[in-house]
Amino acid sequence: xxxxxxxxxxxxxxxxxxxxxxxxxxxxxxxxxxxxxxxxxxxxxxxxxxxxxxxxxxxxxxxxxxxxxxxxxxxxxxxxxxxxxxxxxxxxxxxxxxxxxxxxxxxxxxxxxxxxxxxxxxxxxxxxxxxxxxxxxxxxxxxxxxxxxxxxxxxxxxxxxxxxxxxxxxxxxxxxxxxxxxxxxxxxxxxxxxxxxxxxxxxxxxxxxxxxxxxxxxxxxxxxxxxxxxxxxxxxxxxxxxxxxxxxxxxxxxxxxxxxxxxxxxxxxxxxxxxxxxxxxxxxxxxxxxxxxxxxxxxxxxxxxxxxxxxxxxxxxxxxxxxxxxxxxxxxxxxxxxxxxxxxxxxxxxxxxxxxxxxxxxxx
Length: 364
Prior knowledge:
Blueprint: H1 29-42, H2 56-74, H3 78-91, H4 95-107, H5 111-128, H6 132-146, E1 151-155, E2 167-170, E3 173-174, E4 184-185, E5 189-196, E6 202-209, E7 215-219, H7 248-285, E8 286-288, E9 293-295, H8 297-333, E10 344-352, E11 355-363
Parallel strand pairs: 1-7
Antiparallel strand pairs: 1-4, 2-3, 2-5, 5-6, 8-9, 10-11
Helix pairs in contact: 1-5, 2-3, 3-4, 4-5, 5-6, 7-8
């Protein structure tokens, strides 16, 4: 069977590249020889054997996926093409599909995945001897990528060596002790490192590998510097102190509080200004200036405006004070798993010769 005119062979199992090679990494001739040996060992050709092929409808689906993926790749839609190549190869494993998938990985910033597939294709074709041209192409691409692969080094404290139950994963894939301190080829982008201590404490970090050829080192801290026992701690939060990034709700409430105080202050200033105008007009336009009685309509209108601004100011301070208090409670208790202690909040309007406003008083 051929995909897109490319000769194919059926593999008994997918080629597996051993990532638990002892320290010394992947760069030297020993690492390359090991990868090639493993590829050859696992590549078993069953071309021409009916027992090796899946049901016709499954192979037809794999063929259609391959053809559609090939067209998408030509059009530049590499991300979707990769998904379709992967599914095609899962349904009906074939070296021609793997070669196209490796090219697709190259186009989507996944050089390590592409390199591993090129090596697998080259070793499988070498084992069968049936497609020397494809073997040579895959080998050339693998060699070209290897020298410039981005790598990730995980530095682990010496005190944890050999401890049963101590596990490390990179993007949910276990990283064996043989790889600690070894430059591991990785794809570009963000990678999540997660470490579990035997007593179930956890540490997690995210590292960004941004360019080919670079080696990024992650120093995993000693368990004594991790979170308290029995609880996984979200990134960026330190529960030993009970503080961390403020919850989103507390930030929103803080915004409401700021808006409330702003409205209260502006309206309070306008109210004070209007009352000052009333006091200036009262001696000339009121029969009783002290009591503001018997005043003209102009004075009455000014007084009404001042009252409205004063009411708006009081409302702004009340709302701002309530939001501030609520935001403080959310911040101090959010994510700690503790019930907030009983508290009391009092919001009191205030007025005086200098203007109007409010007073917030509380106990937490």
